Amino acid sequence: MMCFNGTDRMQEGIGDVILKMQTECRTKLEKAIRYSEEHGVDKETLMAVAGAANAKIDYNAFEKGEWNMCTLFEEIAEEGRIEGMKKGREEGMKKGREEGRAVEIIEMGIEFQLKDADILERLQKKLNISLQKAREYFGVFGNCGG
């Protein structure tokens, strides 16, 4: 009876949001790099930005002149990307577990011929979600023709 058409729509929406955030982040990074190249940022500023961003920089490479504001921004962006991916995976796994539990609650409720209102109440209680969220899950997973 599993029916994930609504999940696909949710994933597409999340993908659009992530793409927009990445595009905005890339644009800001490019502006910052362009500014630093045009204005010749000094060592103290670079070190301050690295410290403020808690960036992991290779100080030996920096002393040799192999580091500049551009490489620092790239390092910060990469660290942010990795952290964002980690958080995204964690949130995705949590969301997936919740959706899986919702499917089971709905399927069992239908199988045992519970009233829709009882299934919604059970979803709210077991998943600690709002009535609106329970209705969304029921709308996605409760009408699969099984």
Summarize this structure briefly.
This protein is mainly α. 79% of the residues lie in helices and 0% in strands. The chain has one domain.
Describe this structure in words.
There is one protein chain. The protein has 146 residues and is mainly α. The chain has one domain (12-141). The chain contains six helices and no strands. The protein has helices at 5-39, 43-52, 59-63, 69-111, 116-127, 131-141. Helix 4 crosses helix 5 and helix 4 packs across helix 6 (131-141). The chain is rod-shaped, with a radius of gyration of 24 Å. The N and C termini lie close together (5 Å). The model has no long low-confidence stretch (mean pLDDT 76).
- β-strand number: 0
Percentage beta strand: under 5%
Mean pLDDT comes to 76
Shape: rod-shaped
Sketch the major β-sheet: none
- The helix count comes to 6
Low-confidence stretches: none
> Structural class of the helix and strand makeup?
mainly alpha
Rounded to an integer in angstroms, the radius of gyration calculated over CA atoms is 24 Å
The arrangement of helices and strands along the chain is HHHHHH
**First-residue to last-residue Cα separation:** 5 Å
Summarize this structure as a short list of keywords or feature phrases.
single chain; 146 residues; mainly alpha; 6 helices; 0% strand; rod-shaped
SSE blueprint:
Elements: H1 5-39, H2 43-52, H3 59-63, H4 69-111, H5 116-127, H6 131-141
Helix pairs in contact: 1-4, 4-5, 4-6, 5-6
